[in-house]
Specification:
It is a single chain. The chain has one domain (45-349): Endonuclease/exonuclease/phosphatase (Deoxyribonuclease I, Chain A). It contains six helices and 15 strands. It has helices at residues 2-27, 76-93, 106-113, 207-229, 259-263, 316-319, and strands at 47-56, 97-103, 124-127, 138-143, 158-160, 174-176, 181-188, 191-199, 233-239, 277-278, 291-292, 306-307, 310-314, 322-327, 345-349. It starts with a helix and ends with a strand.
Length: 353
């Protein structure tokens, strides 16, 4: 009897360890190896892709009931079909660094790399868990080039509305941080590079979200100027949920916020202390659309329902290394689709990094 009890306790202990390990894997995987490696199949290419993959959730997230009735995929079967569609897009594009928005955690990133989907061991997942406990969404990366430092976050909060805001917010002042983002570093072209992957608050035209999003942009600007002071190059990429007034999209959408201007160094607390360029400036205006919003709720996409809210910003030196840039429009948008409601931004860089 004593032996049976001891064996039971051991099995229970091992089960708990397994469950804790699975929980940890699901939430985050920010740690880089001691010796980073370059696993690009060809050293003649270097492709960066920004992709909002729309609710890449497989593990059930109860606060959002996802997969379930409160997100796009109503059950796990639909979520797995969506995973296959995402993997097909990634396999087509073959990014060397892929920034993913709206991913649940590392389980999903590992699944995306697995034999049932990409079947590609050259990719490693990295994700620093954010603080958006409402949706459970995070920002992560799949990469063939390991970062030099483990992913981290800033927990700074900034008061909104910012001075000079034209968002039309009339409520009491508040504070906000950037719930979904990560920061890491590389060395490219002989220079240190800071990478900031982010997903800012939704609803471009909502006054409250506009004011909060401007504050989020100020938080990121505060990070950028610290790196600029250390002579780093900068890449900021993600779903900004806002428009660029200087690089207008397909439908000439104009922002009510200064989010892009703050991030580019044209506005905000540190106006003029640095400049970031939007890579969309290097593509025709007719190609500048990354997101579908079914404005009339008819289940069918039309040209006027597309906008560009996914962006990649770079310091001038890194911008000079761009060979080609565009948006991959390889699938249609409609009610009942399994692809994302966003399109990937694709940048081919000088491969001699």
């Amino acid at each position: 009897m004593r032996l049976f009890i001891n064996l039971s306790q051991v099995l229970l202990f091992l089960l708990n360890i397994c469950q804790i390990s699975q929980l940890s894997a699901d939430t985050q995987c920010p740690i880089v190896p001691i010796t980073p490696s370059d696993r690009r199949p060809s050293k003649n290419t270097f492709r960066i892709v920004q992709y909002n993959v729309e609710w890449l959730f497989v593990d059930y997230y109860a606060p959002m009931d996802c997969p379930g009735t409160h997100c796009t995929w109503v059950n796990q079967s639909e979520a797995l079909i969506h995973m296959k569609y995402v993997s097909d897009v990634v396999a087509t594009l073959q990014p060397d660094i892929l920034n993913l928005c709206e991913v649940e955690g590392c389980d999903e990133l590992n699944m995306l790399c697995s034999p049932n989907y990409l079947d590609d061991e050259s990719y490693k997942p990295y994700l620093k868990q954010g603080t958006d406990t409402s949706t459970g969404q995070n920002v992560g990366m799949l990469t063939r080039l390991d970062p030099l430092i483990s992913l981290f976050r800033t927990e700074e909060k900034v008061q909104y509305p910012l001075p000079g805001s034209n968002c039309g917010y009339t409520g009491s002042p508040g504070t906000t941080g950037v719930s979904k983002h990560y920061i890491t570093e590389y060395k490219w072209y002989g220079r240190p590079v800071a990478i900031i992957g982010l997903h800012l608050l939704a609803y471009p035209e909502d006054p409250t979200r506009c004011a909060e999003r401007e504050a989020q942009a100020q938080v990121i600007q505060n990070v950028i100027v610290q790196y600029i002071a250390k002579e780093y190059e900068i890449v900021v990429l993600g779903d900004f949920n806002d428009f660029d007034a200087e690089v207008v999209d397909l439908n000439d959408n104009v922002p009510s916020s200064r989010v892009l201007r703050i991030l580019k160094g044209l506005d905000g607390k540190y106006t003029g202390q640095y400049i970031l360029h939007n890579v969309a400036a290097d593509m025709p205006q007719s190609e500048r659309w990354t997101d579908w919003w079914d404005q009339n709720a008819d289940g069918v996409s039309s040209p006027t329902e597309f906008s560009m809210i996914d962006h990649v910003l770079m310091t001038p030196f890194i911008q000079t290394k761009i060979i080609n840039v565009g948006v991959y429009h390889g699938y249609d948008e409609f009610y009942g689709k399994y692809n994302s409601d966003h399109y990937p931004v694709v940048i081919d860089m000088d491969p001699l990094i």
